[in-house]
Amino acid sequence: MKRLYILILIVLIPWGIECNSTKSTPDLGISMDLPDAKDAGIVSDMGKYDLGKRDLESEGVAGTKDIGKSETDITKALDVFEQLGETATDTIQDNGPQDSFIDSGVDEGVNCIPDSCKSLNKECGTWPDGCGGQLDCGQCGLHQVCKKGKCQTQQPYCGDGICQAEEDCASCPEDCGCKNGEVCYQSKCCKPKNCQDLGMECGQASDECGRLLDCGGCDPDESCEQGKCKVVKHITIVLVGDSTVTDKEGWGGAFDEHFISKVTTINKASSGKSSRSYIDRGYWAKAKAVKGDYYLIQFGHNDEHRDYRHTTIEEYKDFLRRYIDETRDIPAKPILVTPTIVTYRKKDGRIYYPQSLTERAEAMAEVAAEKGCELLDLHYRSYKYFDPLTPEETATYQPPGDHVHWNSKGASVLCNLLEDEIIRIDSELKPYLLHSNQE
User: Fold this and answer.
1) Of the N and C termini of the chain, which has fewer Cβ atoms inside 10 Å?
2) Rounded CA gap, 321 and 291, in Å?
3) Which domain holds residue 200?
4) Can you tell me the mean pLDDT for 256-269?
5) What is the model's pTM?
6) Rounded distance, CA 324 to CA 334, Å?
7) Residue 327 counted as domain residue
8) Residue 248 pLDDT more than 50?
């Protein structure tokens, strides 16, 4: 466009156009169409180059003094400017409106047409509009990302309908959901098994998918063994020990309530006896004569007395070994029971522990491990149960003023603890428990 303006000047210079500030110049009314051009001193408000009121001197055209007098000169001038106007108009149409301004110090950005998102072929993001501004082409939809101005689906994502390697039924059930009849267990689809699948007739078992199955119980005269109901033989359990095992002052009187009808309990415990005196006074011989199937043996309280009943720890352990060996000679199954606690309390209200009986309980545990004998730890179990109680609450489980023996309420609690121990160690007595067979 600038070349056009220079061309005009080159053409006009030979004509000798001059400005005469001292003389007025008649309006020739000569103009050239140049759309959208601005008046820079020589352009009218209508966008036309206005040559009126100027002095013209050129080839064949009258000088300033003769302008308006020669009709021939005016005609020649009109022909020349008509040709120039056609050239300018053609150039403007070829270059477009963005170039249709005169370079006379006017900011070109005024006439810049900004690009659009559509013209730039952009769907998202922010981009230059070509005129110094910024275009906001928007954002992409859910699970899409903007790459080079185009919205692209982000892969993978939960909900895209494809179960990707990094997804599972726990993290993305929408895409990796389990089939009917399956559950999501440990991030994998699992088909739970029922009691029939597992071959279970009774008891409880895992469905192999994180849940516990209840397969019911057996008849009163049956025992649930490894998920099968089996008719059990009649067994006799003999209780051997001191006063804390007797029916009157100990837990013995509530023991048989925890077993099915095919269990007979015979209590041969005797008050005031130690592991030594129970043998010396003939009570052990009588207990063996019963020829029971299981013998529960608990001593320790009277072994600490400094009289004929006393035993050292090593003597105590030797007597326990004798009870185990001679029970097996019947033949029967020996089961050791650690002595119950005494409930004397310190000033802070806590039960004394460890106490002297704790040493006996630990010695009994050593013998049980040595001889491969079942052990029911009633000593520690009773401490854990009664220690959190207040002295007043504990007193309701024992005879008035007594911290060693137990009433019926205390006996019931101790037998519950024994049942828990039977289950915990998976004792041979477990199939005979009443509650175990009712589950």
Assistant:
1) C
2) 19
3) 192-224
4) 94
5) 0.54
6) 6
7) yes
8) yes
- Locate 351 and state its tokens: 């039960």
* Whether 279 and 379 share a structural domain: yes
Of all residues in the chain, what percent carry a pLDDT higher than 90?
Answer: 61
CATH number of 385's domain: 3.40.50.1110
AA letter at 414: L
> pLDDT category, 110, cuts 50, 70, 90?
low
* Cα angle for residues 309, 314, 319 (degrees, 5° grid): 60
Q: Can you tell me the distance from the alpha carbon of 51 to that of 66, in angstroms, rounded to the nearest whole number?
A: 17
Asked, for residue 186, whether it belongs to a domain, the answer is: no
The answer to whether the Cα torsion of 261, 263, 266, 271 is positive or negative is negative
Q: Domain check: are 381 and 427 in the same one?
A: yes
Average pLDDT of the residues of the chain: 81
**Residues near 248 by beta carbon (within 8 Å), at least 6 away in sequence:** none
Other beta carbons within 10 Å of 327: 23
Helix (H, G, I), strand (E, B) or coil at 231: strand
The predicted model gives 92-105 an average pLDDT of 40
Same domain, 268 and 329: yes
Q: Do 15 and 40 share a domain, yes or no?
A: yes
Instruction: Return the amino acid letter for 125.
Output: G
pLDDT digits (tens, 9 = 90+) for 121-152: 999 999 999 999 999 999 998 778 898 999 98
What the block records as the tokens of 128 is: 């230059």
